[in-house]
Amino acid sequence: MAKTNWNVDKAHSTVDFSVKHMMFATVKGGFQDFDATIVADPTDLTTADIEFTIDVSSIDTRNGDRDAHLRSADFFDVENHPKMTFKSTDIEKTDDNEYNITGDLTLRGTTKPETFAVTFEGTGLDPWGNEKAGFAVSGKIKRSDYGLTWNAPLEAGGVLVGDQIKVELQLQAANG
C-alpha cells in the first residue's frame, strides 16, 4: 500500500483509560472528542506521521461530579489547557503488524516522550466502498509526570487516585 492520508472515524473509535481508585478498585473513563492526522501505509507504519488531539473537557467517567473535578485545576485544568496532543517522533516495528510508536505527549502544558504499542488490525471496504483500517493502541503514563498530582490520603494507608494511567484506543480510520 502507498502512504496516504487517513482520518479517524470517531463513530467507530474509542479513547479510553483506567486508573486505580483507593488502591484496590479500577475506574474507567474515556474522551468523546478527539481527532487525528495520520499519513501512513497502514501495512508498514514505520514511516507514518501521526498527530492526535484530545479535547480533555470531553472526559466521561459516567459520573458528572467526578468529571467536573477532573476538568478542574486539580487535574486537567481545561480552562488553561483544553487539549492533550501526541505527535509521533519514532516508530519501530516489533513483530508482524506490531509497532512501538514513540512521540511527544503534551498534557497540561508539559511535554514528555511516551511510547505506545500499536497493532495494525487490517483493512477492508465498508458497505459503501470506503477503505477502512483498524488499529489497537495501548500504553501507560504517569499522571504526576504532567502535573496531575492531586490526591487524598486514605485512613488505612495509600492514596485515593493511582499515579499510573492505562491508555487503550481502538481506532478505525478512513482512507482519504
- The class by helix and strand makeup works out as mainly beta
What proportion of the residues form beta strands (DSSP E)? over 45%
Biggest sheet strand order reads 1-4-5-7-8-9-10-11
Give me the number of helical elements: 1
Count of extended strands = 11
Give Rg in angstroms: 17 Å
Q: What does the main sheet amount to?
A: 8 strands, antiparallel, barrel
- Give the helix proportion (percent range): under 10%
What labels would you give this structure?
mainly beta, 176 residues, 1 helix
Structure, explained:
By secondary structure, the protein is mainly beta. 5% of the residues lie in helices and 61% in strands. The chain is built from one helix and eleven strands, in the order E-E-E-E-E-E-H-E-E-E-E-E. The chain has one helix spanning 64-71; strands spanning 4-8, 14-21, 25-31, 34-41, 44-55, 59-60, 83-95, 98-107, 110-125, 131-142, 161-175. Strand 2 (14-21) and strand 3 form a beta hairpin. It is elongated and about 55 Å long. It starts with a strand and ends with a strand.
Topology:
Elements: E1 4-8, E2 14-21, E3 25-31, E4 34-41, E5 44-55, E6 59-60, H1 64-71, E7 83-95, E8 98-107, E9 110-125, E10 131-142, E11 161-175
Antiparallel strand pairs: 1-4, 1-11, 2-3, 2-11, 3-6, 4-5, 5-7, 7-8, 8-9, 9-10, 10-11
Task: Give a brief description.
The chain is mainly beta and 176 residues long. The chain has one helix at residues 64-71, and strands spanning 4-8, 14-21, 25-31, 34-41, 44-55, 59-60, 83-95, 98-107, 110-125, 131-142, 161-175. The longest helix is centred in the middle third of the chain and has 8 residues, at 64-71.
